[in-house]
C-alpha cells in the first residue's frame, strides 16, 4: 500500500493550526529548538524485516492478517512507515529468512521507498530444512569442527548478501550455551567461539563492522557463551578495530544498569549499536518506551553525553534498530509507537543542561543533578518531534493517519487474512 501525497497533505492541514500553537513555546522559549529539530530529522531508526508480521510466544501465535509474504512486501511496509514518520529509512534483513533473489532489483525497490540496508543478521540459532548439520548443541562453540565450519560459512554468506545490498555491518547473535551444569567446558566454548568469530572477522570488507550481540539467557538457561556485555566486549576487543558490542535492551538480567554499560562501552570505543525494545521481566520484546520510559531516557542521556565527548555523529556513528515482537498489536502500529518513543527519549536527552549537570556533580549536589535530569525527562517534546517529521515530509501524527486510512484492512484485502511473514 502506498501513501498518497494528497492523503498526507490533507492530514497535516487539518492538524496544522493546533500543532503551531503547541510548537510556539519551543520556538519562543528554547534557544536550542532548531538544533534539536535538525538532529531529529537526521536520526533514522532501522526496521527489522522480521518485525513486520505477528510475533508470538512458545504457547501460540495469533496472526492479524495482511502480513508481508515476500521481501518486496516487507520493503513496502517499511516504506509506508518511513512515508508516515520520515524516521524509518532503513531495513535490517535476517538471513536466511529474507534472502534477496536479485540483489540489484532489491536495491532498486529499496531506493524507490527511500530505504537503505542496515546491518544484516545471521541465523545459527535454528536448523534450516536444507542444513547438513544441527545447531542443537551450539554453532560457533560446537565441539564438532564441521558444525563450526558450517556456521562460519553461513556468516560469510550473509556478508556476501550484505555487500550486494550495500549494507556495512554484520550482526552475530548466538544462542550457544548450556542448559545444565557439566554440559559445557566454559573455557573451550569461549575459545572455539573466538576462533570461529576470527574466521568471520577475516572475511569482513575493510569498511564493514562486526556487531557481537549478547544475551543473559534463552534459549539456554544455565549458561550463554556470549552472555553479557563483558563477554561481548572481550570478543570484540580480541577480534580487532572493526568489531563492536551490540546492546539489545531486553538481553539483560532484570534491573541491569544499561545506561552504565552504554557509558563504559562508549568510553572504551566499543559500542556498535542498539536493538531497541522494552521489557517487564526478560526479553519481552515489547514496544520501546512502553514499560520503562525513564530508563530509555537515561540510556539516551549517556549516549548523547558519551558521543559528544568523542565528537561522534549521532545519526551515523552507531547502529540504531528496533528488535521487537508483536503478539497482540498490529505490527506496523507498534513500530510507529516504538520509533516515536525513541525519538522522544533522544529529544529529551538533547535538552539536558550538561554544564549545569557537571557543576552539580562536581559539587556533590545530588538533588540538583537529579532535578536537571528529571526536568528534561518531564518535558513534553512531542511538538518538536512532530515538527521534525513535518519538515522532513512526514505526518504530524503518523499513527492517527495510519488508522484513518484503515491500512490493515487494505493490506488484508491485498494479501489475505492468513498470510504469515517469513521468519515467523
From TrEMBL:
Keyword Ribosomal protein assigned: no
Annotated GO MF terms: isomerase activity; metal ion binding
Keywords: Isomerase, Manganese, Metal-binding
InterPro entries: L-rhamnose_isomerase (IPR050337), Xyl_isomerase-like_sf (IPR036237)
PANTHER family: L-RHAMNOSE ISOMERASE (PTHR30268:SF0)
Name recorded for this polypeptide: Sugar isomerase
Species per Swiss-Prot/TrEMBL record: Spirosoma sordidisoli
Amino acid at each position: 500500500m502506498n501513501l498518497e501525497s494528497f492523503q498526507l497533505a490533507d492530514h497535516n492541514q487539518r492538524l496544522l493550526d493546533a500543532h503551531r500553537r503547541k510548537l510556539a513555546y519551543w520556538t519562543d522559549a528554547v534557544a536550542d529548538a532548531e538544533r534539536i529539530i535538525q538532529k531529529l530529522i537526521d536520526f533514522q531508526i532501522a526496521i527489522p524485516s522480521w518485525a513486520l508480521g505477528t510475533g508470538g510466544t512458545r504457547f501460540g501465535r495469533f496472526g492479524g492478517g495482511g502480513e508481508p509474504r515476500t521481501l518486496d512486501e516487507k520493503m513496502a511496509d517499511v516504506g509506508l512507515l518511513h512515508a508516515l514518520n520520515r524516521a524509518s529509512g532503513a531495513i535490517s534483513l535476517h538471513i536466511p529468512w529474507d534472502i534477496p533473489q536479485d540483489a540489484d532489483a532489491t536495491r532498486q525497490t529499496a531506493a524507490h521507498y527511500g530505504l537503505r540496508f542496515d546491518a544484516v543478521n545471521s541465523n545459527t540459532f535454528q536448523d534450516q530444512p536444507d542444513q547438513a548439520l544441527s545447531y542443537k548443541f551450539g554453532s560457533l562453540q560446537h565441539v564438532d569442527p564441521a558444525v563450526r565450519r558450517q556456521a562460519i560459512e553461513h556468516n560469510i554468506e550473509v556478508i556476501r548478501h550484505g555487500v550486494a545490498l550495500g549494507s556495512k555491518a554484520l550482526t552475530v547473535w548466538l544462542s550457544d550455551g548450556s542448559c545444565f551444569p557439566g554440559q559445557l567446558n566454559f573455557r573451550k566454548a569461549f575459545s572455539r567461539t573466538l576462533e570461529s568469530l576470527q574466521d568471520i572477522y577475516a572475511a569482513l570488507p575493510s569498511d564493514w563492522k562486526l556487531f557481537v550481540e549478547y544475551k543473559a539467557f534463552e534459549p539456554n538457561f544455565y549458561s550463554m557463551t556470549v552472555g553479557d556485555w563483558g563477554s561481548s566486549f572481550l570478543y570484540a576487543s580480541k577480534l580487532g578495530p572493526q568489531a563492536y558490542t551490540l546492546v539489545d535492551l531486553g538481553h539483560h538480567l532484570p534491573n541491569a544498569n544499561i545506561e552504565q554499560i552504554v557509558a563504559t562501552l562508549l568510553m572504551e570505543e566499543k559500542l556498535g549499536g542498539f536493538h531497541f525494545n522494552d521489557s517487564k521481566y526478560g526479553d519481552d520484546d515489547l514496544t520501546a518506551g512502553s514499560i520503562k520510559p525513564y530508563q530509555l531516557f537515561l540510556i539516551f542521556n549517556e549516549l548523547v553525553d558519551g558521543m559528544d565527548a568523542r565528537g561522534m555523529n549521532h545519526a551515523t556513528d552507531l547502529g540504531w534498530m528496533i528488535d521487537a515482537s508483536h503478539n497482540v498489536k498490529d505490527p506496523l502500529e507498534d513500530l510507529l509507537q516504538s520509533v516515536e518513543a525513541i525519538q522522544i527519549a533522544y529529544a529529551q536527552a538533547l535538552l539536558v543542561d550538561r554544564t549545569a549537570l557537571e557543576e552539580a556533580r562536581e559539587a556533590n549536589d545530588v538533588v540538583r543533578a537529579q532535578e536537571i535530569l528529571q526536568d528534561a525527562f518531564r518535558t513534553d517534546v512531542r511538538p518538536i518531534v512532530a515538527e521534525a517529521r513535518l519538515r522532513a515530509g512526514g505526518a504530524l501524527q503518523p499513527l492517527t493517519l495510519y488508522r484513518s486510512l484503515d491500512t490493515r484492512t487494505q493490506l488484508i484485502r491485498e494479501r489475505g487474512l492468513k498470510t504469515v511473514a517469513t521468519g515467523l
